[in-house]
UniProtKB/TrEMBL annotation:
SUPFAM superfamilies with a match to the protein in the record: GST C-terminal domain-like, Thioredoxin-like
Domain GST N-terminal: 1-81
Originating gene: gstA
Residue intervals of the GST C-terminal domain: 86-204
Name of the protein described by the UniProt record: Glutathione transferase GstA
Transferase as UniProt keyword: yes
Pfam family, one: GST_N_2
Enzyme Commission designation: 2.5.1.18
């Protein structure tokens, strides 16, 4: 498989999933502004959506959209990164993935635009902070979003927390559960490996 990624983008989530799954893959870096690959090829010829993540399968098929990609990785791995298909727990995982993508990802993304006015950024920040307040309560007494088991939803939520705290400088000091959760995920060896490979952490 081949993962098309941009360092620190939402493609970090499937990158973490691939490493946690122990599946073989190649990394292909994408310049999202220029829509070019490192070798100069046109990324739009790979993924007409022009977005990462995109996962090229060995069959030649291309899968896009992060929440779908991470489920596919989990199902291929069989390592408890997602509950079994058709189980009640699987639908709970789908609920989490949808919450993260619609309530966090889609509200945080616009805040990176230099064209967005300050009052618009404040609007999005207020929306996201209300979601983080919910997560602060939801994570009380839990190691991971599904309870005691790390799943692909955790890699996705961690990526969004990285965006919020490390890049957008949100102050989450009043949310100890959320900060402890972020630190717990960050300490996982495969998460550190993904971040190192993307140049987000210095190699030890």
């Amino acid at each position: 498989m081949k993962l098309y990624y941009s360092p620190g983008a939402c493609s970090l989530s499937p990158h973490i999933a691939l490493l946690e799954a122990g599946l073989p893959y190649d990394l292909v870096k994408v310049d999202l502004r220029a829509k070019k690959l490192e070798n100069g090829d046109d990324f739009l010829k790979v993924n007409p959506k022009g977005q990462v993540p995109a996962l090229a399968l060995d069959s030649g098929e291309l899968v896009t959209e992060g929440p779908i990609i991470v489920q596919m990785i989990a199902d291929k791995a069989g390592k408890n990164l997602a509950p079994p298909r058709d189980s009640d727990e699987r639908y709970k995982l789908l609920e989490w993935l949808n919450y993260i993508t619609t309530e966090l990802h889609k509200n945080l993304g616009p805040m990176f635009s230099p064209a967005l006015a300050d009052d618009a950024k404040a609007f999005f920040k207020d929306r996201v902070m209300s979601k983080f307040n919910y997560l602060e309560t939801a994570l009380a007494g839990r190691d991971y979003v599904m309870g005691k088991q790390f799943t692909v939803a955790d890699g996705y939520l961690f990526t969004m927390l990285m965006w919020a705290t490390d890049r957008l400088k949100f102050d989450l000091s009043a949310m100890p559960n959320l900060l402890a959760y972020k630190a717990r995920i960050a300490a996982r060896p495969k998460v550190q490996e993904a971040m190192t490979k993307e140049g987000l952490l210095k190699a030890a």
